[in-house]
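A reminder from the course coordinator: this example appears on the midterm review sheet, so study it carefully.

Given structure:
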């Protein structure tokens, strides 16, 4: 085995650990959001991203920007928007300055659901991170996530 092989193996193991952490966190949050609010992680993320839009320059996101923010393809994002619109959580309207553009906004009902679901999301995230921190393979990644969030490592 060469030094390069060893480095690639370590890199691959790191990637696997990161993927495992992400999957565990997402599954934990998914269960909590579904049980408490009838929302998937993707639906919650979409409502959250769209709720942060504002009027004025750069305030509304194009569908590609929304897709990038929720890590979905444009077609999957459009289907997700349609599902949430059918539930009354979103509305679409034409851009006032470019009739080809369509904006999506969170409805009052969607904002209320998002506000109710946010503590569930945050608590589930905290629980999933605390659980993962007990795994020696995942603990360094949890510390890194917490540092990114402004929390000192090691809780």
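Designed residues:
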């Amino acid at each position: 085995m060469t030094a390069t092989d060893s480095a690639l193996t370590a890199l691959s193991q790191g990637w696997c650990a990161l993927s495992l952490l992400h999957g565990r966190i997402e599954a934990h949050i998914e269960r909590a959001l579904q049980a408490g609010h009838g929302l998937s992680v993707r639906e919650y993320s979409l409502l959250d991203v769209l709720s942060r839009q504002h009027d004025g320059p750069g305030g509304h996101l194009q569908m590609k920007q929304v897709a990038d923010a929720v890590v979905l393809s444009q077609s999957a994002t459009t289907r997700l928007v349609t599902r949430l619109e059918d539930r009354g959580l979103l509305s679409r309207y034409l851009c006032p300055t470019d009739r080809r553009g369509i904006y999506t906004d969170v409805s009052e009902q969607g904002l209320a659901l998002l506000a109710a679901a946010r503590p569930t999301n945050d608590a589930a995230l905290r629980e999933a991170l605390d659980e993962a921190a007990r795994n020696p393979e995942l603990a360094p990644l949890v510390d890194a996530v917490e540092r990114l969030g402004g929390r000192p490592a090691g809780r």
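The radius of gyration is 19 Å. DSSP finds six helices and two strands in the chain.
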